[in-house]
Amino acid sequence: MLDLLAYPFVQRALAAAFLVSIACGVMGALVVVNRMTFLAGGVAHAGYGGVGLAFFAGWPVLPTAAGFSVLAALAAGLLSRRRDERMDVTVGLLWAGGMAFGVLLLDLTEGYNVDLMSYLFGSILTVGPDTLSTMALLVALLVGLVGLFYRPLLALSLDREFAHTRGLPVGALHLLLLGLIALAVMTAVPAIGLVLVIALLTTPAHLAERHAGSLAGMMVLASLWAFAFCLIGLGLAFWLDLTSGAAIIAVAVASVAVAELLPRRKRIARPETG
């Protein structure tokens, strides 16, 4: 098995797994604490519209899909806030509308002959150097923004009314959170796919929440869990000739199922917000 590490595609797969684990661990903690799992799923599926746009316009897929997803997430946040729409209705429209938009654009793309399975279910073993570089840039941007706005995001996550009384721009922070979720989702798409990415966002964070004493600790633990799932899933994919993305998520879901049989020790504490 160690001989596989000599192959460049395996090295890129491990690097991609590391990057995806950071993105999903950091943002997964915020998604779980803010109870935004359904929203993250909507953003993931809306990203299909960005994939269709990229092929239709002849643009790079990952940057285009990431930009499209961020704009779609921000639009959903603004729509639900300004028009008093229920967020679940807005997310439902985002979910279905993004998928439909992507399908229509692909139908209109001349000479289109690309296998979309890698975008729907991921293909971490085929991540190329350019895609890996883009993923690294997205993760750097994501971690940088979370680090810069950590305390405001912490206050927003733990008590929005308190954050508002402290004079924090709650509306702007909410939109920032939506944009960050979109970035994390699209970072993981090359490895896990649009359909499965929601599981890698939520399962590591759910497990980390049982033991973490702070949001930052939860982010670190979730990242470690996510990387462990990726490594085990990749190993199973090689050993049993399985689809890598599905194997990774199967390991994650099985881990949560086992953890639910064990007694809970601790939930995330409410740290001081300053």
From TrEMBL:
Cellular component GO terms, alphabetical: ATP-binding cassette (ABC) transporter complex
Localization: Cell membrane; Membrane
Biological process (GO), any one: response to zinc ion
Highest rank taxon of the organism: Bacteria
Keyword Transmembrane helix on entry: yes
Regions crossing the membrane: 12-33, 53-77, 89-106, 135-153, 173-203, 215-239, 245-262
Membrane association type: Multi-pass membrane protein
The keyword Phosphoprotein appears for this protein: no
Keywords annotated in UniProt: Membrane, Transmembrane, Transmembrane helix, Transport
InterPro entries in alphabetical order: ABC_BtuC-like, ABC_TroCD
Protein family according to the UniProt entry: Belongs to the ABC-3 integral membrane protein family.
Protein name as catalogued: Zinc transport system permease protein
Organism: Roseospirillum parvum
